[in-house]
Fold these 3 entries.
Entry 1:
Amino acid sequence: MADAVLEQTVDHEAAVAGRRRFWSRVLIYGLLAIFSLVYIVPLFVVVFNSFRDLPEISRNGLIAIPQSFRLDAWPQAWDTYCIGGACEGMKRYFFNSLMMTIPATIISTALGMINGYILSKWRFRGSEVLFTCMLLGVFMPGQISLLPWAFLLGKIGLNNSVYGLILVHVIQGLSFTTLFCRNYYVNIPDDLIKAARIDGAGFWRIFWKIVLPLSPPILIVTVIWQFTGIWNEYLFGVVLNSGAQQPITAALVALSTGGTNVRVFDVMSAAVLIGALPPLLVYFFGGKYFVRGLTQGAIK
Amino acid sequence: MSIVGAAAQVGAPGWRDRLGKAVPIIVLAPSLVASFIYVFVFAGWTIYISLSNSSLLPTYDFVGFEHYEALWANRRWNIAYTNLFIFSVFYVIGAMAVGLLLAILIDQRIRAESFWRTIFLYPLAVSFIVTGTVWSWLYNPTAGIEFLVRNLGWSNFEFALTTDRKLAIYAIVLTGIWQSSGFAMALFLAGLRSVDQDIVKAAQIDGASTFRTYRKVILPTIAPIFLAVMVVLLQFAIKTFDLAVALTNSGPGISTTFPAIYVYDLMFQRGQIAEGAAAAVMILLALAAVLVPYALYVVWRRRKESGNG
């Protein structure tokens, strides 16, 4: 009898707890769903509108379930749309950005790895102080170096050129890449390096044979960080370069703020997606490393 | 460098040794020199220009703080830093609040966690230019959110933030929060995951509700993360340029101009490089005002921790 009562109350309590749990789950997933809608809708809007026809967009607005489908906007945005007087679409600016981002990423990452290797495994007197000074570069606002860059690049004949931007991004990126790699290499046991040195391995041999094979995680983080950062950069692209030499971010601004008042949302959507696609692809394929770079960059 | 290495092998062992020691320094030198020029010479030069009477081209006649006085007397600069202040407060608080809420939601042992995380974080992969451009369409009263809601039946709904001088800054705030709250979420989540689970379990056994456990036990232990997130977001805010350019292009009128935009205008649109440099130095000082105390605090905390440990 007593057992039965006890069982009943336990059942009752379990039921209450279960119901509470159920509703708290509903609340959690409900909130997550609402927020993710807010986050994902802008992306859907651009993707859908790049395939809708213009009259339908003006009739139903930008945020609507597509009722038309056509591909015309994409070749137009890529090839023939007029931006700031030149009717060549986004392709030129896309390749400018590519020509700038890939070398700048590779060079700044390679240098950052070597620097990080030295500053963690070949420390010398004063190397910590030098490292701290290099770190200051992470916090420098672009505005403070705008004029010096403009005059320096003018002096060495790299003004209004993609090569000038490569130089800018390599040097500005050095402090980030060095920081990332140094903080990663610090965790490689010193004994490993010592043992190799006793075996007669030198600076480069240790780097190639020991440090580099351990590097892929940090290499991916650094490459993703540099690639998205440089691809998305706008300030230097618009200040140091003009016209046909500008990167895609500057072209996007010229496209959406410039000239005609007729809003060709279909072509502009495709153009925006062309500009956003490379970093988005990097994000969707390397998301884990992207987040790791983010949290490392911020907290350290 | 391999040539140097080979040459060294031929020489006497003493030489080889000394050269071997020098290799790291020689390899590091170019990066160091470049970084030093970038950090110190560039900043020093800009500071000097701000104290000179340069206009279209740099000159080196020292005029003292004239351009700073002119800058602070300027109405446009006034609007710019007021905007920066408003933006920083709402953006930092907003992004932290949304980020924390999302982090706590994701921390509830939910299904498909990485799916949700991917959605909340993707804005960060996209440039401010792309975000700003797309949101400028969404704020467009005849095509975007206002149009949608009115079509749904609320015919008096108003959401034309970007065409209103007083409200346009809040359009930038909202978009900034949209872009950055995922970032705050990632940092908070990393913090939540680092909390000792035994303490959490102890609180739950004592009968504390989830809400109470977070408020009394979990959040206080990740207090340093709050500070770190705040500092990083403030740094973003002070550097705000791309987002405001793409979203409102300083408009309507000059109501959403920012210090970083004003620097650009002074230097490259109006040819007043000394005053532009002065404005750039103010941005540097604002960053220093945020970062220097934080850096000192971090050093102090580390010392304290290592002292206790």
Entry 2:
Amino acid sequence: MINLAQKDISHTLGKFIVTAMGVGMLLGIVLIMIGVYRGMMVDAEKLLKDMNVAIWVVQEDTLGPFAESSRIHEDFKDTLKVIEGIDKSQAFTFQNLQLYGLQKPVRVTAVGFNPFESINPINPTNLIKGRMLQKSHYEVVVSTETGFKLHDKIKIARNYFTVVGLTKETVSSSGEPLIYLSLKDAQELQFSSSNASIKNDRERGMSVSGDGHTVNTIAATLKAGYDAKSIAKKIATWKHLSVYTNEEQTTILTKNLVERSAKQIGLFTAILVVVSTIIIGLIIYTMTLEKMKEISIMKLIGIPDSIILKMIVQETLILGFFAFIFGNIFSHLIYDKFPKRVVLEAPDALGLFVVIILASILASFVGVGKVIHADPTVAIGG
Amino acid sequence: MKKEQSIRIENLTKSFGSGDSFVSVIDGASFTINKGELVALVAPSGAGKTTLLMMIGCVVDPTSGQFWLGEEKVYNNRWLTNNSRQIRREKIGFIFQAHYLIPFLNVLENVTLVPQTNKIPTKEANAHAMELLKYFDIAEKAYNKPSQLSGGQNQRVAIARALANNPQIILADEPTAALDTERSISVVKMLKKIAAEQNVAIIMVTHDERMLKYCDRVMKIEAKKIVFE
């Protein structure tokens, strides 16, 4: 039996391909939107995974250090070390900075840590050039996404820092590229006042602030066999601090911080899918309208509705399928051009494929309705 | 030798509406057309030729009467089958004013579409279609699209399509309306030849009285009745 859909498509192949590409671009955007969401989730967990600690200790009644501002004293890391079950503990700072020196200012998140202690937030697998921090001052390891190169000098506040290492795909939970510097430098940046500011404060009769031993969080690892939750509870009870397990910190980042954005993206994606369905429906409706004379003739010469409907449904499915293929190609061509991480995953594409096939079937009903109501008598009587 | 009947109609009527809006279009039409006959159907506009043609073509339901295609009774105050489209596909061929070929199918596919729908194996349907295309001297265009053929060639393909299902009857709706006299005569002569050689009845609606002399009989609709000249 002649496949009418295949014949009709090959008759207007150019038009069909352009149409499929148009719908495909729309589906590509849907895939990118899903990819942006996946990227947000990956970014949210990236730093936590790289640091691989069990417990986060922050200022009492805060969700810090990523979700809320937190300040605690650095020496609490030593207090933690004596608590049963704690293996290593280390102080960290996190702050947003704007770096200059390239064509455009770069927004980054700076991680301050003691390079001579054992918890290293730089995952060695992410270090693609250069080395780790080896000095207490004026060295910095930066993400390649900042645009800086090895041995570049970056002016941060009053000092120049040398780029000694480059990492790849290291971003903060909000997707900003990370830079790593020594804890001492980071503390000076975040908590110390400038000379002019100190002088000004003195002249106003205010006490000179600038505690150089404040940090944002203390992170700790546990000895084997100890439960993070019970140790966190113990620390929180006795030390007037908020303590989160790594799991809870992940939840704070992925649920509390990203959830609203995720909902927004999800809604936008759903709207795009509905728009795609409507567009496919309109295309099929137009394609069917263009063939109404032929459909009426086919009905008149005795071709059953089932064969004509098969043509319409097959054309819709083929359009949906090729649009999906083009959408995938399109999304893979452009995803790395986005400033933040876009993660394209096969299960998402597969899910969209199922949705588009269902949407195509739904859209084909528009054409089916026209076929059923096509009048076979139009060809008779001039 | 007794001629085989192609179509027989007894007391066929068609009316629309009821009460004050009642309109009778065909009233008690009775006639038989045998295989091999070319019959012209002539009537003024609005007299009911299209309605009659659509009833014979199983497109419009008659109001009452009886109706045979070949020896098979297909209508007895109601259709005797649930699928009038199947009757059209298996027993009737259509020729229109324009060729109305399917533009996205090539010539061979246009001719074999109905036979293949009738579950005739592709090979057999193609062979029969090629015979018809050779008969109409357009076999070399079998794989061309209608847009690549002239108007006359397309008309011949349309006639080949009408014959492809070995119909009991061909209904030709003003096939010469858009043609000049010379080409009209040529088409009517061809239909006459087809009727005789393919042993099929053809009812041809025409307004052109010059074509009547080439037909075996002339059927007219006068005051809702069928009369033969």
Entry 3:
Amino acid sequence: MSRPVLKVEHLKKYYPIRKGAFSKEKTVVKACDDVSFELYTGETLGIVGESGCGKTTTIQSVIRLIEPTDGTILLNGEDFRAMRGEELKQARQKLKLIFQDPYSSLNPRMTVKEIISEPLEIAGVCPDRAERDRRVLETMEQVGLDPSYVNRYPHEFSGGQRQRIGIARAIVLRPDVVICDEPVSALDVSIQAKIINLLRQFQRELDLAYIFISHDLGVVRHIAHRVLVMYLGRVVEEGESKELFARPLHPYTQALLASVPRMDAEGKPAPALQGDVPSPADPPSGCLFHTRCPYAQEMCAAHAPELREVSAGHKCACHFAGGLPSKGE
Amino acid sequence: MKRKREPSPVLTYRGYYRESWELLKRDPLAMVSLVIVIFLVIIAVFAPLIAPYDPDKQVLSQKLMDPCLEHWFGCDKHGRDILSRCIYGCRVSLSVGLVSQIIATVIGYFMGVCAGYFGGKADAVISFLIQVFSSLPDLLLAMALMFALGSGLVNLYISLGVLAWARTARLIRGTVLQLKEKEYVKSCKVDGGSDLRVILRHLLPNCIPTLIITVTMGIPSAILSEASLSFLGLGVRSPMASWGSMIAESQEFFRSKAFYSLFPGLCIIVAVIAFNTLGDGLRDALDPKLRK
Amino acid sequence: MAETVLEVKDLSITFFTKQGALPTVDGVSFTLDRGETLGIVGESGCGKSMTVNGILQMVPAPGRVTGGSVKLAGEELVGMREKELCKKRGQDVAIIFQEPMTSLNPLMTCGRQISETIQAHKKVSRREADQRALELIELVGIPMPEKIFHSIPGQLSGGMRQRIVIAMALCNNPGVLICDEPTTALDVTVQAQILGLINELKEKFGTAVIFITHDLGVIRQMADKVLVMYVGQAVEQVDAKELFDNPLHPYTQGLMRCIPGMDGGDGDLHVIDGSVPMLYDLPKGCLFAPRCPYADDRCRGERPGFYGAGGHRVRCFRCESMGEEGSR
């Protein structure tokens, strides 16, 4: 395949914190630790994991909404982290973001036109007002919004329509990569389906690459080509979507899949995992998952497993990937 | 690329300020105070047309005249018409209130945005300044400033404005801290929008309700401070009429000629209550949390 | 064995607003036996939560229960005095909300909150109440109950908080437990734990459960029978197994098909056309007709009844042949 449109290598975001209110001793929270991935044109990369696993920190570091601590980000082969000023501004036109909450992601004091045309204004691509308005109307039509509502305020729209406004804003500049941070989590299922279909349609028509974050495994399985599973800031498994959902290697991925309530299977749920995600400020030693892992052995508490390729394109960070020992030791 | 459109939005939303106005109209107390405020503003603007006499003209034969048909509010110790002086005093009070609040708002918004939006060192310094200004006794500081600058209307504007910024800055800082986390601010930054753009396009429009409320609630306290300073002889220069200075002049006649201090006192009370009540009503109407 | 603990008949709730009288809940009926779980499913604004408020007689203004009856263990709740209702709530019927923090006092220790709830309904000493609270904390599967007893809610994770709320709800061993989207804010692994816990406790105490959710997968795992709601009306009401094997109402069918499955195809997702109508602008005929792929002139002209026999009831003309049962 050709060169990836976005390549992220060893991305790290550490937050220093004090151990106690009066203690001088400092420690770091590894919100995102050594995350690497590649994203190709027309492809969707799904990132799944429970809350606090670092999904949002990862993508916010990728788009430099927060400055990453370390790592490289190559956008179309150019070093995105080294960019400054005008160069950065132009590069940002290729990288867009869609937020989860359709209520707080649109400025309540701006009309739909102002919201959608803001990226155009910032980029300075259409100095001509009439031309800009034409692009706004065209994009509204594309995302399925009636262009006659161009002068209305976000309050007047339902959640699904607001999310369409957010999508219009993201695609109006024809970006290369669109990052979707839980874009359908706040929506009802029937509206969720419409938005997912819309996103897939734009992917086909505009050759967009998506990074799609969701805690809903069904949605990710449907939309993503490849999937990263994150746990406590680290990638624990990566693979082709079909392969990963059919043959999950990491015990955490297996537990996640087993926990999803399914419509097709009868029977009472059997909780696959005990306890909660440990605090990122005080992570377990060795393998981060060993405190909750049903297969944990002595060595898991001592040594952190590397993310290694188990089969072609399917990576897993588990000492026993491919051949798990029997449950409980 | 025609696609099926979403059906029309069903909510009828006429814009934030129209909606707030509708809410305000339903508050009888706020509407009464709004009428009084408008009335006071008209008096202040058209004082020369409304006032029956020249406020500074001394007619010694009318010295301390009781209220009568010619002089509704009576005359003061120099034989000047108190009604006319109250009308001109309204000019002083309202202009002091408004101008000092505008100065306070400009400084306060700028400081508040710097502290809230940029954070870090700027926040530490500005927050410290806010603390210092709010822990000093207002009136003493105003007196000190007026001593330093000398009395006069312009100096009143400046000293009261400089004193009131801390309150505005504190509120704006809090509002900005919340707004900064909003996703539309983040998406503007992701689009490469400059800090100036964020501050002007996204933060300012969302701060305006807060600013309207602080100005309305700040005016009465500025009016009171002006009255106190003028009472102490640190406000406007005589013979300029101000409600506070009129009360000061009437001191020796508290017992014998009650009307002398009564009328300017009433003016202060009416103006302060009207602005405060209007401010309360505006806060209820503009606060999104109190909606629905 | 089938002992009916809750009987709701033709419950209607109307909101009186500027736009007129809005039928927020329109003639919902069901019975709930001991140890049984009723799932109520539907999209936001379909009247799920309001139905529950109606059962508890806690409809917020400007809404009012405008018809029907709610019998809790044979006692009529509609029209009951507020003082007696207060006694019922928490004692005979308890509720768990989506966001646990809304029902917890952030400044009081978890243990004290539970024991206070016990003392509010029973005359017991502080010591006895505390003892019982500790047992309850242990019962809901919290490790190190003594430590949690003395913690304030802010120190706990979302899943732990929800367990505390469940312990509080269970402290008077209520006959009916209402769960209003109790796991929507939780992660899947924690959701599985909480769902497991609710099922376990239900079996242990024979509590009847009303489970409200928008997630059909959760319904499948939890419910014995299901009520599908659309714009304030029950559109389909049947045993859970039958519902998933043989959904009859076009809305139910649409809902099931638009969820991306764990093993579905890659094509575009099925969508239900249009959007939910507003309560002040309801269609003249069947409420679902404007979005229904099978709608004909009759559907657009008149409201269908709630047809069906043998426990499967559907509000659709296509099921008219199943026979009329009950009114409406």
